Amino acid sequence: MLICSSLDEVKRRESALRFIANLLKGKERSSLYDLSGLAGGFPVKESDLPLLETYSGPAIFSTHLQEEGKKHLGGDKVAAFNRTSAAILATILALVKPGEEVLHYLPELPSHPAIPRSVKLQGATYRETDNLQDFKLTPKTSLVVITGSTMDHRVLPLEDFHRIINISQEQQVPVLVDDASGARIRTVIYQQPRALDMGADLVVTSTDKLMNGPRAGLMAGKTPLINIITEKAQQFGLEAQPPVIAGIVRALEDFTPQNLLNSLERRDHVYTLLLEVMGGVEKTPTGFMISAATLQKEITPEGEERSPRELATLMAMVLLKEHHLVTIPAVGMPGVSTTIRLDLSAADARRLDDSQIINAIRESLGRVKEI
Amino acid sequence: MLICSSLDEVKRRESALRFIANLLKGKERSSLYDLSGLAGGFPVKESDLPLLETYSGPAIFSTHLQEEGKKHLGGDKVAAFNRTSAAILATILALVKPGEEVLHYLPELPSHPAIPRSVKLQGATYRETDNLQDFKLTPKTSLVVITGSTMDHRVLPLEDFHRIINISQEQQVPVLVDDASGARIRTVIYQQPRALDMGADLVVTSTDKLMNGPRAGLMAGKTPLINIITEKAQQFGLEAQPPVIAGIVRALEDFTPQNLLNSLERRDHVYTLLLEVMGGVEKTPTGFMISAATLQKEITPEGEERSPRELATLMAMVLLKEHHLVTIPAVGMPGVSTTIRLDLSAADARRLDDSQIINAIRESLGRVKEI
């Protein structure tokens, strides 16, 4: 199999999807292990489905959402959005007027593009900094955003958190904490307080990051703010829909901080063992990855007969077809990343033991070398 | 039970939701009849759930979405959005620059607020008209929107449709048809062609209107336009999430034009019979309604001991508890409309025969008179 065009890539993806669809026929979900880290859980129960088919079902799940959401994030009131980016857009539209300013503090530049993009759309100005010296509000600042932890799980020190919230409170400017993964990383792993417990006015988190929920944004905070943000969201179609709300509720009910701690400990352990199988394997915040360049070095040290993309695709397809492990180079769209990532915080990782993971890598590596 | 405060309303709603939750325990969905018209279907199958729990499931449903969506709307490519309003926002952000103009033609003024609101957010200008004489593009017009049918199911005449599309095409301005309910009303009931088959560039429909799908927006049209709109949608978190896409796919598969025709015929028939039970009942586009004022005239012609809201609430609660019919005055939020609407295009209506509906109204009316 030579991957020389986008058409081959289309066929590769179709072949992978067909294999998975066949495997899942007859509900044999347990035969598949999705370690892509991008699955997004949808743990609604079969018994939830008939309820979702009525006007009242969503009303009942929305009530549960308030309870479970406040348990997770604190605050007075909760709202769910189609995505965290949608929650940020709704917040900026509700709290920032054209010509005003949003000031963004984060552990490391640059920002996720959703924040500057929404500010620009509203006709406001945007500044970002990762340096406390530069964190200065102006009379035009009407919203402060703090990123609690970056995509690489870099976390804002507690002291900086308090300082930024204090400065903003003194000037009566509301603070939104973008705690996409931070609402769990910061609290569970770094034992920091929840954003609202530190005095932030609003916090938003992604329910698919380090928890087994759908891709969506969950916001909590002060009731009057949540109310006006919700109104804006409904005007532009940004709020989470009932099936997604049901998924969020069930994911919040299932969330167990200890599982997250276990997956990080486990990552360190598996990583050490994997180094013996393959030198170039690298740690990620919640698992590990093998780049196509590493694969190439490992497999074809003498020549360059196969492209890195071809090798990564082969490896991912062997992992899928022989070990039922789903990774992105097998199922992603044409042109997708060629890095094989295995996420140990994925729900399916708990159904695999360490030796299964290591053997799958070792045997797949051997098979690709044969081919 | 006296409804004199919003607190009573909260209790009324909680009591209704509790009753429904108990009724549905053990999956007895068939014992409940949701005629609110606002349920929003979520007809995913139990066997879809394990698939939705993987990265690949959504990929598979997205492929089906292309097939089923194109069957329903025509066009080259399909995209799903969190709501029709979100689809309109994404389209305006993608196709209209600040300072340009959106011209909107509709069967009857005024527009749904989503369109002028999105145009304003983008810093463009907006004009709307329901008069062909006034439909004149300017050099700044970069998008024409046509509303195919209004919320009251008023439909644009075919001749006007063609004329507006021709004028816009001559000036190479793309046309988006907002066919929220029109994609079914216009084609199934008025036998007009699909919007894209008349030469429109884009069409968007609401998958919960006159079909048993989730609240969401389904768009179809020319590939390059769909691609740039999708990109904007993903930037701001406007695209439909995987569980909703699965719901749309199943609803499209289930959609049967004949059911819609039957429900309208049935509405006319049931309406005639209902007039004998209660004089003031009124037709709606897909069912009928009883206003609180009508109830008051019917029940307390001599005095005014009970408020219209109280009577409507009582009637809705009797319909729910004794006949298992869900209507909005029973389950809606505090302050919700006091009009009892029964939608015969709702999926559950097919499980009731005419006499059950008429008896439920007659007996509930009697019970409310007793109380």
UniProtKB/TrEMBL annotation, chains A, B:
Names of required cofactors: pyridoxal 5'-phosphate
Keywords assigned: Pyridoxal phosphate
Superkingdom, natural source: Archaea
Residues annotated as domain UPF0425: 281-353
One Pfam family matching this protein: Cys_Met_Meta_PP
GO MF terms, alphabetically ordered: L-seryl-tRNA(Sec) selenium transferase activity; pyridoxal phosphate binding
Signal sequence bounds: none
GO biological process: one example: transsulfuration
Protein name listed in UniProt: UPF0425 pyridoxal phosphate-dependent protein
Organism name: Methanobacterium formicicum
